[in-house]
Design a protein that fits this description.
The protein has a single domain, classed as Acetylglutamate kinase-like (Carbamate kinase), CATH 3.40.1160. Helix 5 packs parallel to helix 7. It is globular, with a radius of gyration of 17 Å. Strands 4-3-5-2-1-6-8-9-7 form a nine-stranded mixed β-sheet, sandwiched between helices. The protein is an alpha/beta fold. Helix 1 links the parallel strand 1 and strand 2. The structure holds uridine-5'-diphosphate. Uridine-5'-diphosphate (UDP) binds next to helix 2, helix 3 and helix 5. The site of uridine-5'-diphosphate has 23 residues, from helix 2, helix 3 and helix 5. Pfam families: AA_kinase. InterPro entries: AceGlu_kinase-like_sf (IPR036393), Asp/Glu/Uridylate_kinase (IPR001048), Uridylate_kinase (IPR011817), Uridylate_kinase_bac (IPR015963). Its EC number is 2.7.4.22. It is an enzyme of class 2 (transferase).
């Protein structure tokens, strides 16, 4: 069956933890390389790709503040962690021959580009993968919100949220054998039932701009490309 939507430009959001493999912390280069390969296989289809990678494998602001750090300082540390992850992904993608730009919400010119919207759009048109780093640049936000924000700014057709499970379930499928996966679910239902797709700020921003969120498994080899070709299982969060 042909896909209902032909995707030309998408946002891929992954958590920092997706890069740590079986380790409890940090970056696992073979895992980063595997995900880069998944991204390349979609890039090969001619799809323009934006990426946002979290920082939870290195540092989370909330965890720091729970241990007594000042919250905003801890959040800036979390944002810096996302820059490290973005650089790791850039390195892995470029080793596969995919041109990329790391674009930071917080300028750090020696390391990567500052975020300038029109420049980022141009990179996408030139088929460079744009990896948006440092979240939104503001404390008290998350990288899920950054992904939704940049997806709107870049006019992406959807946010693809790569996770460990193949969609959104009514309860945790790793704990309950009778958990049911939604094929499609509304933004408001996700918010009301607290289905844990993304934080509420990100969901509301997607809802208000009619931006679909597609939750799929990044552990499934070829999964990302499959969904773009209309195959595989996933949940579409939409209005
Ligand atoms: N963060 C922030 N503002 C943003 C995005 C991220 O302050 O716009 C900080 C926040 O402290 C967060 C950390 O960066 O805990 C890492 O991001 P996130 O928790 O979203 O990463 P993920 O859970 O996706 O790995």
């Amino acid at each position: 069956e042909a896909p209902a939507v032909t995707y030309n430009r998408v946002m891929l959001k992954i958590s920092g933890e997706a890069l740590m493999g079986d380790q409890g912390y940090g970056l696992n280069p073979p895992t980063v390389q595997r995900i880069a390969q998944e991204v390349k296989s979609v890039h090969d289809l001619g799809v323009e790709i934006c990426m946002v990678i979290g920082g939870g494998n290195i540092f989370r602001g909330l965890a720091g503040s729970a241990q007594g750090m000042e919250r905003t300082t801890a959040d800036y540390m979390g944002m810096l962690a996302t820059v490290m992850n973005a650089l790791a992904m850039q390195s892995a993608l470029e080793q596969l021959g995919v041109f990329t730009r790391v674009i930071s919400a917080i300028p750090m010119d020696q390391v990567c580009e500052p975020y300038i919207r029109r420049r980022a759009v141009r990179h996408l048109e030139k088929k460079r993968v744009c990896i948006f780093a440092a979240g939104t640049g503001n404390p008290y936000f998350t990288t899920d919100t950054a992904a939704t924000l940049r997806a709107n700014e870049m006019a992406c057709q959807a946010v693809f949220k790569g996770t460990k499970v193949d969609g959104v379930y009514d309860k945790d499928p790793k704990k309950h054998a009778d958990a049911k996966r939604y094929d499609s679910v509304g933004y408001d239902e996700v918010l009301e039932k607290n289905l844990g797709v993304m934080d509420a700020t990100a969901i509301a921003l997607a809802r208000d701009n009619k931006l679909p969120i597609i939750v799929f498994s990044l552990d499934e080899p070829g999964g990302f490309r499959g969904i773009l070709a209309g195959k595989g299982t996933y949940t579409k969060v939409q209005g």
